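<amino_acid_chain>
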Amino acid sequence: MSRKQIHLAAHFPGVNNTTVWSDPKAGSHVEFSSFAHFAQTAERAKFDFLFLAEGLRLREQGGEIYDLDVVGRPDTFTILTALAAVTERLGLTGTINSTFNEPYEVARQFASLDHLSDGRAAWNVVTSWDAFTGENFRRGGFLPQDERYSRAKEFLTTASELFDSWHGDEIVADRASGTFLRDAQAGAFVHQGQHFDISGQFNVPRSPQGRPVIFQAGDSDEGREFAASSADAIFSRYSTLKEGQAFYTDVKGRLARHGRTPDQLLILPAATFVLGESDAEAAELAREVRRQQVSGATAIKHLEFVWNRDLSGYDPDGPLPDIDPDLGEHTIARGRAQVRMYRDPLATAREWRERAAANKWSIRDLVIETGNRQSFVGSPATVAETIDEFVQADAADGFILVPHITPGGLDVFADTVVPLLQERGVYRTEYEGSTLRDHLGLTEPSAVEAGTRRVAS
């Protein structure tokens, strides 16, 4: 029986506190050289794609800018377009919000990126739940969860209609004679729905992939169903083998009712890693990295996500608060999506107190142990074996790697783990195709069969 091939991608960290800023090798999140180095390392290692997350507002906590995160980064489309010029095969994936954007402009941007990159564009479709982000936009406010996904589904449907609005020989160019054949209906579209009522002509011809590859990141039931119906890949936050297998089985099991097969949706968890000459050395380095990632201030801020209270008076190296979380509507961690990760703050606080007491953990110890465990820790041989085990056991189809040092943290993985995966015969030694769909083993959307001919060279 043939072994599954592993998919690997690289995430350039965005708004998070996982990067070790104190390391002298840590670089800028604004200078293009950082993005270029990261992307070119991923391409050298034959990764499927580079992934950029995006935040639409600076984060706040306690009414002040949250200075423990990246506080800003250039626009996603700008970065990805620039990276298209310094890479040849690497896929370019960007997070673009469906709650506060419009289908026409997003479709136009992704179609343009797919043309400029010769078929390497991908879109991570996300929604926003909070009024905090909405204040940056004219429409303002926010949408309840069911309406967020309703809008997202219609947004994606509408964008796909725009991508598909060019057919057959609607534009054929002959540079030698300077003649063009055009169809007056090229790009024509009409969409009437609950969220969008638009019509006109889409002005970007069909791109090499027809449509960008579609990613989805939601873990809720609505998010999983959205991915099963519409996405080409879904991110996962599950890092253990058992949890990964359960998620994999659940999401893949939803595909049939949407007329899809298991190979039409890839499951790609995010994964951190720490490598050492030996497993023992890597374990010691991982402990050091976790303490660098979680300062005392970070630990207190993280606890406030759950307690919904000002805990600045507590000692991060002391015991957990003996007061219960505030269950009110106001959240001290305004603008932090992590608040919604803890659906039962009282139960979470009770569990954390019990674990802290049993292990004699301080606040900082608890935050480190519950929130900043690296996914893969060990020698290159150990990490390669573990990644292979997860994929062959159907806990994932591959991983999106998030290094703790940017931009050079991916280099050691590329130089030591990738060759071992190649020796196992589970990872490519060369790219076999030119588009991101080729790398991911995905077929083109059916509408591509009538796609536009490219301009003659």
